[in-house]
């Protein structure tokens, strides 16, 4: 985009797609490119908020990921 080779109007935000405000694909021939970046601390903060909201609403289920904790 910085070099003028890509038009910003051809890009959609993942939030708009997941909320249904923008279609994920407009036709069968369309290619999808995703660029994921950011800081891990932001990912953890966001995941904590999602978990807290789900827990408060009684949503989700407990998962047994291993038989014993890795750290005791």
UniProtKB/TrEMBL annotation:
Species this chain originates from:
Corynebacterium flavescens
Region Disordered, annotated ranges:
1-34
Q: State the source organism's domain of life.
A: Bacteria
Q: Name one Pfam family in it.
A: OCD_Mu_crystall
The record's annotation in InterPro entries points to: NAD(P)-bd_dom_sf, ODC_Mu_crystall
- Name of the protein: Ornithine cyclodeaminase
């Amino acid at each position: 985009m910085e070099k003028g080779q890509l038009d910003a109007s051809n890009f959609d935000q993942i939030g708009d797609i997941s909320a249904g405000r923008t279609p994920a694909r407009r036709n069968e021939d369309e290619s999808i490119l995703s660029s994921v970046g950011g800081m891990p601390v932001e990912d953890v903060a966001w995941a904590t908020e999602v978990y807290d909201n789900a827990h408060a609403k009684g949503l989700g289920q407990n998962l047994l990921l291993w038989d014993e904790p890795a750290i005791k």
